[in-house]
Design brief:
Keywords: Cell projection, Cilium, Cilium biogenesis/degradation, Cytoplasm, Cytoskeleton, Repeat, TPR repeat, WD repeat. The protein is α+β, with helices and mostly antiparallel strands. It is built from 41 helices and 65 strands. It has a four-stranded antiparallel sheet with strand order 1-32-31-30, with no helix packed on it. Strands 2-3-4-5 form a four-stranded antiparallel sheet, with no helix packed on it. A four-stranded antiparallel sheet has the order 6-7-8-9, with no helix packed on it. Helix 16 runs antiparallel to helix 17. The chain is elongated and about 170 Å long.
Length: 1360
C-alpha cells in the first residue's frame, strides 16, 4: 500500500539537522526528536508534544531501553547521562564516574543495564535498578564510536583505534579484534549456518564505509569481510532481516540484498537502484523496507526482488527513516521537518448483512456497501464494494463492530456507537478492556475477562429496566469462562471453555437453548440467523452445530481454522467457507439427506495473507484488505471460467468439473443446464444420484426420465408417496445401492422393508432377527438361509443349530414343506460330519440316497475327515465309481476295486491299480492297467524286465515315441549284443553321445548318421562329429553330407565337389551340394557349384538337370526356365518328347505356385510339346478335328523340333489329319510345304502319292470359317485353337485335355496338377482314359469341379 500521511511536525527544533528515535517495546509508540536547539522532544502516536527536555548542549546520542521505559541522552558538554522515565515523566542525571564526556550508549536486553562509551576509550556500566556504577578505564585507546549487546549479555565495542572488543556484562574483555580501518554501525544478529545454533552469534559492522565485516562468535578464527563494487559508493546503512539476510544501502542510490549462509556469502540476492543521485538511509521491518534519497521516501518489498511498492515525497525532504516498534508507522525526517506515515493498519473490521466496516486509518473507520440492495442510492456500485461513509475516532480503536443501525468502536474500556443515519455518538464505559464486540439492532454485547455483557445501545423502555444490561454467565453457570460471543436479531449466543453453548432470546429475554459439548470450545462462527454455526473445540476439531436439532456434524477434514463465514443468500444458506490464513475452503452442510446430516468439501480458493473474509454471498467473498479497503473475490467452487472455451475438449472438461461443483453445492437446476450441454449419460446419472441423496425425488424423476431409466423412475415414483423420513431415506439409499445405510434407516421405521432388504443383501443374521419379531411365518426360510450362510463361512456348529431350528414340524405332508425339510436334513447331514458326528451324517444322507449331490458332498466331507470307508460307500452310491475305487485302493480293498475297474476310465485310478498289481506279481493285469492309464514307460519296463516281450516293447516305443522307453529298449539291445537296434533306440532316447560311441565301436557310424538325419531333435555337433570322422577316413561324400547337416556349408561344399568328381558318387554328391548351396544363402558357394556343373573347374560339364535343380532350389526361376528350355530341347533331340514336356510342365507349375510369371519361351515349349503329345490320344479316340488343330499348331512352329526328320513327320501327319478332319485348305498349305526340295526327299514313300494328290487337286470352294469360342479375358470371339486374343492381346491358357484355349463358362482344373481344362472335354477324356494327359495321374472324373473364377488362371501370364 502507498504510505498514508498521519501527521507532520514542522521544525520541532528549528532549522537544521533533525534526528528522531522510536520508543521500543510492543505497546509503546512515543517518538523522541532532537536537533539544533539543544532539546529532546517527546511526541505521542498522533504527533502531539508530550514533553520537551532541555540539554546543556547539543544531543550527541539517545537510546531507548528494550522495554521502552527509559530514554538515555548524552551531550558532548557533560560527563553525565540524562535518563528520562516515561511512566513517571521523571528526569535523572547519572554520573558515569569518568571525567570525559560520553560518546555512545547501549542498553542490555535482560535488565536496564546501560553501557556508556567515552571520548577517550573508557567504559562505564550503570544498572538503573541497583544504581550500581562500574567505570572501566583503558578499554580502548581512542574514542568508542558504537556499542551493541546481544541477548546473551555480550557487549561489543568499536573504537577509532581500529579495534573491536568483546566483553561480558561485568565489563571484562573476552577478546580483542584488530581491524584494518575505523569501524562503525555495529550490530548483532544470527548468521545462517548448516547447523542451527539459537542466539545472536554474529557481529556485523562497516569498515571504512566500504566493506562489511562479519565475525561469528562460534567461529572466531574465520571472520568474513565483504567488499562491494566501487560504483555502489560508500555504505550508508545496513539492516538484518529474515533468516540471516542483510539489506545494504549505498550512497550512489543502490540497494542490495545478500545472504550470510556460508555457501551463499558474497552472492547478491537482488540489486536495485531506487534513487538516482544519492541514498541517505534505509529501514527494514519484516518483509518491507524503506529508503531515503533524492528527497523521496520509497517502500520496497525485500521478498519481491526489491520491487518498489510505494513512494512519497515528504515535506522538507527525507534524509532519515525508521519504523515504529509495531511496524505500523514509518517516520521520515528532512531539513527541520518530520513526517509520520501509516504503512500498516491493525486488522480491525466487521460485517453485518450486506455491509462491512474496516479501519482505514489509525483513527478512522470506513463503511462499505458490498452487495446491492433495492433501496440503495443510485451512485452505489452493484458489482464492487462502495464506500458509504467515514467515521473519525478520537483514539485508535482496539475492537470494532457493525450492526444494522450503528458503527461501533471500542478503545480500551471506552466504547462509542455511531448511528448510520447520522447524529452524535452514544458512548459507554465498560468495566474492563473489551476483547470482543457484537452489535445487532438495538443491542450490543461485549466480552471481557471471560465474562459477557448484553446491553441496550440506547436507553431502554422504563417498563423493562432489566434490558439495560445483563451479565453472563448467569448465576447457575458461575465459574464458566466465556470464550466467544455472537449476537443476531433474535439471539445472544455465547460459548464457554467448558463446552457450553447457550442461546439467549432477545425477545423473551431468557435462555432458549443449551448444549454441552464433549470438550471445551474455542470459537463459534454463526450464520446470519444463528441457526447454524461452525464450532471449533479445544481439540482443534471443527463441527457444524445445528441449534434447532442440537446436533453436531463433523467436517470431513481437519484444518487450522482461523474464522468461518456463512453464505447470506437464502438459496445458499447451507454453504460456508473456512478461512485458514492462506486459503478459503468451501463446504456444504446437508442437514437432511439419504446419508444423514453431513458436510461435503467443495473446493479451495487461495487468498493473500492480509485478506480477511467478512461476507459470503452466492459464491462471492468480500474481504478486508490492506489499507482499510474491501475487495470482492470469486470462490473457485463457484467459478465459471473456461465454460465457453473455444477448445471443445477443454470446454467439456471444464463443464464436467463445474457440474461436480454444482452437485456438491446442490444447485440442481444449474447442473441440469450444464448436463444438457455436455449430454453424457455419466453426468446425468451423477445428477440423478445427487438429487436422490438430497431427497429431491421429483427432480430425480426428471433426470431418470431423461435417461429413459424406466425401472428407476418407477422406484422413485413409489418412493415419492412415502411420508416418513426414515422410510423414505432407506428406500432412496436402496435405490443408490447403499444397502447398509438403507438397512439402518428401515430398521428404525419399517420392519418388513428392512426384512426384504436384509434378505436381498444376504445379511441373514439380521434378517432372522427381524423375522423373529416382525414375521414369524418367514422365520424358518430365513433361518435356513442363515444356516447356509454360516456353512459357507465355516461356522459349522452354529450352522447345525440353525439347520435344526429351521425344520418345520407342522403340515409336513405339504410338498413345499417337504422340500424345505429335505434341504434342512441335507444341511444337518453335512454339518454333522463337519462337527464329528459321522454316523448321524451318513445315516441322514442315506435317507435321501436319491439326492446324488448330497451323497457326493457328504462323501467329500468324509474324505476330508479321512473316513475313507464311509466316503467310498457314498461315492459308490452316488455313481462316482472312480473316486470310490481310489479310496478303496487306499484301503487296499482289492475285491471291491476289481468289481469297479470295468466301469472306470480315469488313468490315475488305473495307474494306482497297476502299481498295486505289479507289487502283487500279477504282471499281465498290471500291464493292461498301465496301458489304460497311458503310462507307457511302465508298460515298456514290464515287457522288458518281467514279461520278456521285446517285440511288444519295441512296438510301444515306436507308437508312443517315448524317450524313456526308447532308452530302456536301447539298454536291452545293448545287453543283447544288437548294436544296430541299440543305436536306433539310443537316438530315439536323445542319448546321442552314447549312440555315437556305440556306432563307432561297432563300425555303424553311417547307420547312426542316417538315423540322425531322420530325427528332428538332432544337434549340429552330432553331425559334426560324424563329418570329422569321415573326413579322417577321406570319405568325401559322407564328410560333406554330414557337414551339410551340421550347418557348415563351406566345408560341406568342398568335400561334396571332391566327391562329385567320382562317377559313382557324382549324382548323390551334386544333389547334396545343391541343397547346401540353397540352405547357405551364400552366393560364393553357389558360384563354386555352378562352375563345377558347367565344367569350368575340371573341363567336364555335368547333366543340365543338376543346374536346373540348383536354380529351382535357389528360387532363381528365370535361370531355371532357361535351363529347362535347354533340357527340353535336348530331350526333343533325343526323341523323348514326353520327358521334355514333363520338365516344362514341372517348372511352369512351380512358377505358378509362387506367383512368378512363366517365361514366354518356356510356355511356348510346354504348349507345343503337350499339343504334339495329345495328337496320338485324339487320333486313338477318333477326334481327328482336335488332332488336326494341334498338328497345325505344331506345323506352324515346326522349327521348334530339332531334326528335319521330326519336322517332316509332323508336317506329313498334319496333312493327313487335316484331310481326315475336312480341313482341305490347311492340308493343301502344308502339302505344298512338303513338296519343297528341303523336305521332299525325306517323305515316307507310302505317303508321297497321297500328298502329291492333295497338291494336284486343290479345293475349289472357299475355306469354311474357323470355329470360335469367347475369349475368357475380354469375351471377344477367338478361334478355338488360337492362344492369343487379337482384341485384348492376352495370352490365353490352353486346355490340358484338348489343347484348345479354355472357355470361361466350362472351366475346371486337374485336382492333381492344377492345370486348367474344358470341363466337358476333360470329363469325357477321363471316362475313356482314366488319367490326366498332363501329369499322368489317375483322376476320377467325379472329382472335377466347375470353376467360376477364371481369373485364377488368367493371372499367370507369360513374361519375356
Amino acid at each position: 500500500m502507498t504510505p498514508k500521511l498521519l501527521y507532520t511536525i514542522d521544525q520541532p527544533h528549528g532549522l537544521g539537522e533533525l534526528y528522531f528515535l522510536w520508543q521500543k517495546g510492543e505497546s509503546h509508540s512515543l517518538l523522541a526528536t532532537t536537533g539544533t536547539d539543544a532539546t529532546v522532544a517527546i511526541h505521542d502516536r498522533s504527533g502531539q508534544l508530550l514533553e520537551r527536555i532541555k540539554l546543556p548542549g547539543l544531543c550527541s546520542g539517545m537510546e531507548w531501553d528494550n522495554d521502552g521505559d527509559y530514554l538515555a541522552i548524552i551531550t558532548p558538554n557533560s560527563n553525565s547521562v540524562l535518563l528520562w522515565e516515561c511512566h513517571a515523566n521523571k528526569r535523572v542525571n547519572i554520573e558515569t564516574g569518568l571525567r570525559e564526556p560520553p560518546s555512545c550508549l547501549a542498553w542490555s536486553y535482560g535488565e536496564p543495564l546501560l553501557a556508556v562509551g567515552t571520548q577517550k576509550g573508557n567504559l562505564a556500566l550503570y544498572n538503573h535498578h541497583t544504581t550500581k556504577r562500574i567505570p572501566i578505564l583503558g578499554k580502548h585507546t581512542k574514542k568508542i564510536t558504537c556499542a551493541a549487546w546481544n541477548r546473551d549479555s555480550i557487549l561489543i565495542l568499536a573504537s577509532d583505534d581500529k579495534n573491536l572488543s568483546i566483553n561480558n556484562s561485568d565489563g571484562d574483555t573476552l577478546r580483542m579484534i584488530t581491524l584494518r580501518d575505523v569501524p562503525n554501525d555495529l550490530q548483532f544478529s544470527e548468521m545462517k549456518t548448516d547447523e542451527r545454533v539459537a542466539g545472536e552469534n554474529t557481529i556485523s559492522l562497516v569498515v571504512a564505509k566500504r566493506t562489511l565485516y562479519l565475525y561469528n562468535l562460534l567461529n572466531p578464527e574465520n571472520p568474513i569481510e565483504l567488499a562491494f563494487q566501487q560504483r555502489y559508493g560508500t555504505i550508508v546503512s545496513y539492516k538484518w532481516y529474515g533468516d540471516g539476510y542483510i539489506l545494504i544501502g549505498f550512497s550512489a542510490g543502490y540497494i542490495i540484498s545478500i545472504s550470510t549462509h556460508i555457501k551463499e556469502v558474497g552472492e547478491e540476492l537482488f540489486q536495485v537502484k531506487n534513487h538516482k543521485d544519492n541514498l541517505t538511509d534505509i529501514a527494514v521491518f519484516n518483509g518491507q523496507a524503506a529508503s531515503c534519497g533524492d528527497g523521496q521516501l520509497k517502500l520496497i518489498s525485500v521478498w519481491n526482488a526489491g520491487q518498489v511498492s510505494g513512494s512519497v515525497s515528504p515535506a522538507g525532504g527525507a534524509e532519515r527513516c525508521a519504523w515504529s516498534a509495531d511496524g505500523r508507522l514509518l517516520a521520515a525526517a528532512g531539513r527541520g521537518t518530520l513526517s509520520a506515515y501509516v504503512t500498516r493498519l491493525p486488522p480491525l473490521c466487521a460485517a453485518h448483512g450486506t455491509r462491512a466496516v474496516a479501519l482505514s486509518s489509525l483513527a478512522e473507520l470506513t463503511l462499505y456497501q458490498c452487495i446491492a440492495v433495492p433501496d440503495q442510492p443510485q451512485h452505489v456500485s452493484t458489482s464492487e464494494p462502495t464506500a458509504l461513509a467515514t467515521y473519525n475516532l478520537p483514539t485508535e480503536p482496539s475492537v470494532v463492530a457493525l450492526g444494522a443501525s450503528h458503527v461501533c468502536a471500542v478503545s480500551g474500556q471506552a466504547g462509542a456507537f455511531y448511528p448510520l443515519g447520522g447524529g452524535p455518538a452514544l458512548r459507554r464505559h465498560y468495566p474492563a478492556p473489551v476483547d470482543a464486540l457484537r452489535v445487532s439492532g438495538d443491542y450490543a454485547a461485549v466480552l471481557y475477562q471471560g465474562r459477557a455483557m448484553l446491553h441496550s445501545i440506547e436507553t431502554p423502555d422504563p417498563a423493562e429496566p432489566e434490558r439495560e444490561a445483563m451479565l453472563f454467565p448467569e448465576p447457575h453457570m458461575q465459574g464458566a469462562k466465556i470464550v466467544d460471543i455472537h449476537l443476531t436479531s433474535d439471539f445472544f449466543i455465547f460459548v464457554t471453555e467448558q463446552g457450553h453453548i447457550e442461546y439467549f432470546g432477545l425477545e423473551e429475554w431468557r435462555s432458549c437453548s443449551r448444549y454441552r459439548h464433549a470438550c471445551g470450545v474455542r470459537a463459534l462462527h454463526c450464520d446470519i440467523s444463528g441457526a447454524r454455526a461452525l464450532l471449533l473445540d479445544e481439540r482443534r476439531r471443527a463441527h457444524v452445530y445445528a441449534a434447532p436439532a442440537a446436533e453436531l456434524c463433523a467436517l470431513p477434514d481437519q484444518r487450522d481454522v482461523k474464522s468461518a463465514i456463512w453464505d447470506i443468500c437464502l438459496s445458499d444458506r447451507n454453504v460456508f467457507c473456512v478461512y485458514t490464513g492462506e486459503a478459503l475452503h468451501t463446504y456444504y452442510y446437508a442437514p437432511t439427506s439419504a446419508a444423514g446430516a453431513h458436510v461435503d468439501y467443495v473446493a479451495t480458493t487461495s487468498v493473500l495473507p492480509d485478506h480477511i473474509p467478512l461476507i459470503l454471498f452466492s459464491g462471492d467473498v468480500y474481504c478486508a484488505a490492506s489499507g482499510g479497503s474491501v475487495i470482492k473475490i470469486a470462490l473457485d467452487s463457484h467459478n465459471t471460467g473456461g465454460l465457453a472455451d473455444a477448445d471443445t475438449e477443454k470446454r467439456l472438461a471444464n463443464q464436467r468439473q463445474h457440474i461436480e461443483k454444482l452437485l456438491l453445492l446442490r444447485r440442481f437446476p444449474e447442473a441440469w443446464l450444464f448436463c444438457d450441454a455436455v449430454d453424457e449419460p455419466d453426468m446425468w446419472r451423477k445428477l440423478g444420484e445427487a438429487a436422490i441423496s438430497e431427497l429431491n425425488v421429483e427432480f430425480a424423476i426428471r433426470v431418470y426420465t431423461r435417461l429413459s431409466d424406466v425401472a428407476m423412475v418407477w422406484a422413485l415414483e413409489d418412493a415419492s408417496h412415502i411420508e416418513e423420513l426414515p422410510v423414505l431415506s432407506g428406500m432412496l439409499c436402496a435405490c443408490l445401492g447403499k444397502g447398509e445405510a438403507a438397512a439402518r434407516w428401515l430398521e428404525s421405521g419399517a420392519s418388513m422393508q428392512a426384512l426384504e432388504l436384509h434378505a436381498a443383501r444376504g445379511d441373514w443374521a439380521r434378517a432372522a432377527a427381524v423375522a423373529a419379531s416382525a414375521c414369524p411365518a418367514r422365520a424358518p426360510a430365513i433361518t435356513l438361509h442363515r444356516a447356509s450362510h454360516l456353512e459357507l463361512t465355516a461356522d459349522y456348529h452354529e450352522a447345525l443349530a440353525n439347520y435344526e431350528k429351521s425344520i418345520i414340524t407342522e403340515n409336513v405332508e405339504d410338498p413345499k414343506v417337504k422340500e424345505h425339510n429335505a434341504k434342512c436334513e441335507a444341511g444337518i447331514a453335512r454339518m454333522s460330519i463337519r462337527c464329528g458326528d459321522v454316523m448321524r451324517g451318513v445315516t441322514t444322507a442315506m435317507k435321501y440316497s436319491q439326492d446324488v449331490n448330497l451323497l457326493k458332498d457328504c462323501a467329500q466331507l468324509l474324505e476330508e475327515e479321512k473316513q475313507y470307508s464311509h466316503a467310498a460307500a457314498l461315492y459308490d452310491h452316488a455313481g462316482n465309481t472312480e473316486k470310490a475305487a481310489s479310496l478303496y485302493i487306499k484301503l487296499k480293498s482289492w475285491l471291491k476295486v476289481e468289481a469297479l475297474i470295468p466301469k472306470i476310465n480315469s488313468p490315475s485310478i488305473h495307474l494306482q491299480y497297476a502299481k498295486a498289481k505289479e507289487a502283487e506279481g500279477r504282471y499281465s493285469d498290471a500291464l493292461k492297467s498301465y496301458l489304460k492309464a497311458q503310462d507307457f514307460e511302465s508298460a515298456i519296463r514290464l515287457n522288458l524286465d518281467k514279461l520278456d516281450d521285446i517285440d511288444e516293447a519295441v512296438t510301444l516305443v515306436q507308437e508312443t515315441k517315448s524317450v524313456l522307453g526308447a532308452k530302456m529298449v536301447a539298454n536291452y539291445f545293448q545287453n543283447s549284443d544288437d548294436p544296430t537296434s541299440a543305436i536306433k533306440f539310443l537316438v530315439m532316447s536323445l542319448c546321442y553321445d552314447e549312440a555315437f560311441q556305440l556306432a563307432r565301436k561297432n563300425g555303424k557310424l553311417y547307420l547312426y548318421g542316417e538315423i540322425l538325419i531322420q530325427t528332428s531333435q538332432a544337434r549340429p555337433e552330432d553331425f559334426k562329429s560324424l563329418a570329422l570322422h569321415f573326413e579322417g577316413e577321406n570319405n568325401y561324400l559322407l564328410a560333406g553330407k554330414f557337414y551339410f547337416h551340421a550347418g557348415e556349408y563351406n566345408k560341406a561344399m568342398t568335400y561334396l565337389l571332391k566327391a562329385g568328381s567320382s562317377e559313382a558318387e557324382e549324382s548323390e554328391a551334386i544333389t547334396i551340394a545343391i541343397d547346401a548351396a540353397a540352405a547357405s544363402d551364400d552366393e560364393r558357394l553357389t558360384r563354386r557349384l555352378i562352375e563345377f556343373l558347367l565344367g569350368e573347374t575340371d573341363g567336364n560339364p555335368r547333366d543340365p538337370r543338376h543346374l536346373f535343380r540348383l536354380y529351382m532350389a535357389k528360387k532363381q526361376f528365370m535361370e531355371a526356365a532357361k535351363t529347362a528350355v535347354i533340357i527340353a530341347g535336348a530331350e526333343c533331340a533325343a526323341g523323348r518328347y514326353r520327358e521334355a514336356r514333363d520338365v516344362a510342365r514341372g517348372l511352369c507349375a512351380a512358377l505358378r505356385a509362387r506367383g512368378v510369371p512363366v517365361p514366354r519361351d518356356l510356355m511356348r515349349a510346354a504348349v507345343l510339346l503337350h499339343s504334339y503329345i495329345l495328337v496320338r490320344t485324339h487320333v486313338r479316340r477318333g477326334r481327328h478335328d482336335l488332332a488336326a488343330r494341334l498338328l497345325l499348331r505344331a506345323a506352324a512352329e515346326v522349327a521348334f523340333f530339332p531334326t528335319q526328320q521330326h519336322q517332316v513327320s509332323i508336317l506329313t501327319s498334319a496333312v493327313i489329319e487335316c484331310g481326315r478332319a475336312g480341313l482341305r485348305h490347311q492340308a493343301l498349305q502344308w502339302a505344298r510345304a512338303l513338296m519343297t526340295p528341303e523336305y521332299r526327299e525325306q517323305i515316307d514313300p507310302k505317303y508321297v502319292k497321297k500328298i502329291e494328290s492333295v497338291v494336284r487337286h486343290p479345293p475349289r470352294d472357299a475355306a469354311p470359317p474357323e470355329r470360335t469360342a469367347p475369349c475368357p479375358q475380354c469375351g471377344a470371339e477367338l478361334p478355338v485353337a488360337e492362344l492369343q486374343c487379337a482384341r485384348c492381346e492376352a495370352e490365353v491358357p490352353f486346355c490340358l485335355a484338348t489343347g484348345l484355349h479354355i472357355v470361361k463358362d466350362d472351366l475346371t482344373a486337374c485336382p492333381e496338377c492344377d492345370f486348367p481344362a474344358i470341363l466337358s472335354e476333360f470329363k469325357e477324356m477321363l471316362r475313356e482314359e482314366g488319367k490326366c494327359p498332363m501329369c499322368g495321374e489317375n483322376v476320377d472324373y467325379r472329382r472335377l469341379v466347375k470353376i467360376d473364377d477364371v481369373s485364377l488362371y488368367l493371372d499367370f501370364r507369360p513374361s519375356e
